[in-house]
């Protein structure tokens, strides 16, 4: 499949997130009444440098000149591109932070004191030696591996600084790589998958960037995506366990896989029952699962008993024993024969409207079903438990209309 049309695919909300995430370099405006004192400020003195990853703290003694408004630092952050930065610190502080440096090396920073009349002092040149920038440290952890219908990308960011992992793809016959998917985060782990590929070998590459536009070396890898198929719903079966929540209104758990998103589905009793609201069913086959689509109840979009926060637990045991599931557990938690396969939150209305005031477009989006991914590390399973810890209304009952599961049964 030719994927060129998906290059540079990034939504407006994602762009807004990137802007917010990477806006910390915005400079402060020092707008004060113009002073008539045109005296040239003295220079800062007693300068000291404390280096850190990708930057440095510079402390100094302010000049005794009384009309100093701020201290300005001007510096080149990337010798290859010539990109520069300018940061300011008010006269209330004796420290200025310089960051965004592309490499671990010596850089020159020019410090000037600026008066309220916008008169600059002579320049004091300071040398800083920032340690290895965070984006380069994160890039050393890049891991690409085959995933269902595509590739999985992971990077470790224990520093929790904003970085982006950029996935590139070069289709057969294309002269060069293009951006296929981007993921920006300050989380300790970036973990995402790109899908939609057949199982033939594919040329992928990944690099890490930061908010100042510094890019790491690119890691190239040829990957053969894993086979993925929709699991056969005719093999699914109810497997009620003692701790499962009672079903009400004459509905049935088997309605979750009858291929009909309307009509009746799975609906528990509207009683004060303990959370999570739980249902257990068998897949009829052992499979390495990749993703699933869950359909909520139409007419009650973002409300009533539709799941808002839920987990999927799985077991590959041919006859898994019952266990009372917790309201929350970390992914990978093992309880008896069951393992937490994933924790999920149903996204709110795409328009940004409150759930109680969802637009017609929001409701149409909801009724298309929502796709969720299983972590790539999730084990094989032949039984699943849907455990709803919060419904959109906050009530102690839940309902859903259909579930479609994908994975590799081989």
From TrEMBL:
SUPFAM superfamilies, A to Z: Galactose-binding domain-like (SSF49785)
Ranges for domain DUF5126: 132-234
Pfam families for the chain: DUF4959, DUF5000, DUF5126
Organism: Chitinophaga eiseniae
High-level lineage: Bacteria, Pseudomonadati, Bacteroidota, Chitinophagia, Chitinophagales
Gene3D superfamilies on file: Galactose-binding domain-like
Name the record gives this protein: DUF4959 domain-containing protein
All copies of domain DUF4959, residue ranges: 23-130
Bilayer-crossing regions: none
Domain DUF5000: 259-407
């Amino acid at each position: 499949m030719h994927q060129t049309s998906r290059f540079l695919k990034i939504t407006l909300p994602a762009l807004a997130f990137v802007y917010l995430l990477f806006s910390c370099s915005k400079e402060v405006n020092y707008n004060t009444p113009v002073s008539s004192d045109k005296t040239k400020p003295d220079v800062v003195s007693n300068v000291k440098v404390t280096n850190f990853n990708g930057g440095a703290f510079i402390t100094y003694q302010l000049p005794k000149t009384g009309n100093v408004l701020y201290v300005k630092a001007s510096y080149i952050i990337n010798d290859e591109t010539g990109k520069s930065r300018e940061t300011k610190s008010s006269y209330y502080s004796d420290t200025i932070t310089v960051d965004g440096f592309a490499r671990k090396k010596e850089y020159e920073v020019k410090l000037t004191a600026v008066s309220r009349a916008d008169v600059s002092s002579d320049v004091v040149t300071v040398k800083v030696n920032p340690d290895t920038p965070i984006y380069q440290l994160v890039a050393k952890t890049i891991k690409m591996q085959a995933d269902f219908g595509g590739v999985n990308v992971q990077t470790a960011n224990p520093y929790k600084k904003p970085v982006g992992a950029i996935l590139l793809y070069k289709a057969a016959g294309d002269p060069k790589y293009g951006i296929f998917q981007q993921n920006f985060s300050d989380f300790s782990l970036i973990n995402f998958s790109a899908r939609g590929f057949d199982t033939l070998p594919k040329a992928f590459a990944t690099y890490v960037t930061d908010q100042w536009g510094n890019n790491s070396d690119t890691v190239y890898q040829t990957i053969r995506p894993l086979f993925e198929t929709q699991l056969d719903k005719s093999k699914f079966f109810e497997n009620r366990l003692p701790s499962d929540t009672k079903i009400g209104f004459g509905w049935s758990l088997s309605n979750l896989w009858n291929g009909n998103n309307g009509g009746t589905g799975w609906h528990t009793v509207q009683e004060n029952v303990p959370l999570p609201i739980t249902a257990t069913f068998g897949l009829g086959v052992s499979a390495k699962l990749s993703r699933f689509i869950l359909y909520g109840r139409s007419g009650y979009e973002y409300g009533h008993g539709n799941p808002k926060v839920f987990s999927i637990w799985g077991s590959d045991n041919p006859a898994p024993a019952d266990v009372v599931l917790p309201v929350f557990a970390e992914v990978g938690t093992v309880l008896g024969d069951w393992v937490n396969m994933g924790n999920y939150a149903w996204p709110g209305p795409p328009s940004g409207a409150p759930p109680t005031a969802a637009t017609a477009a929001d409701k149409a989006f909801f009724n298309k079903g929502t796709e969720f991914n299983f972590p790539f590390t999730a084990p094989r399973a032949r039984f699943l438990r849907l455990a709803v810890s919060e419904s959109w209304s906050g009530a102690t009952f839940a309902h859903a209309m259909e579930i479609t599961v994908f994975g590799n049964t081989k």
